[in-house]
Amino acid sequence: TAYEIASCLVGSEMCIRDSAYSGYTSGAKVSTTKANFEMMKKYILSIVTLICLSLNAQITSYHLVYVKSEDQAKFEEVEKKYHSKLVQNAVKEGDIQYWCLEKIIYPAGISGGRSNMPGMGNVYQFVQVHKDIEAYIDQLSNPWWSDAAKKLKVKIEDVSWPSDIEQIGIYVWKIQDSAWEGMGDKRPKFSLYNFGVSLDPQKFLDAQAPWKQQFINQMKNNEAGRAGWSSGTRIMPNNGGEHNVFTWDGFTTLGDVFRALSGNIMNLKNTEENWAMSNGFDLRFIAEKIVETN
Length: 294
What we know:
8-stranded antiparallel barrel, two-stranded antiparallel sheet
């Protein structure tokens, strides 16, 4: 319930309060000044409000795994040949609204001890969209992938991942706004994710309105290879100093993604004043769609 979630966040605020004076929390540097502590309190209260409003809104979960290069062919085969059939049925039955598997291809390098580059390995993410928080909770207790081999009438090894796959985590977001007008039959093949930390998430969301209209115009005029846009706020995990807002941009080609990035020089002064984000989007990555539901 909203009350239970708010209670959990009050506990989170206490953890932030106790850890702020150590200099760091959840890997993000935290100032030890009283002014910053007051800003963090404002941040927590705004998150409580957003989560309470999320109870009847579209929810997207991102399940991240790391797959070594030598295991990727088998991993993708299992998802394309078997699991995608099961999840398509879940969409048809109304259990979920959409699902896809994406492979994170940029930035290339080493992060968190993992090498995200050709010949070594990549992070993949399962993207699953639910109509509301209750639908998400229902899937936790009755997942569409349970008894996959039995449902598909195949051997268990046919639908099993390679044993070396590493689980990274699951992140749950509320989709606050989106733009699909003018897409026609275009489907996004590449995703650009933009993450940041805002001390006033609602201010950030309100400031996206002109960008949304610009992207709608691009799609209507078949410009820039744009194929969808959305903005959101994070529900869980919810730790102070971590990314709590994001935007997603869909594109038809990888070249369109890089052209969009090259023409988008971020003004940090502007993002701090208008988005309540002192560092702007401090994490961006590009993902290629491997398989998706209709």
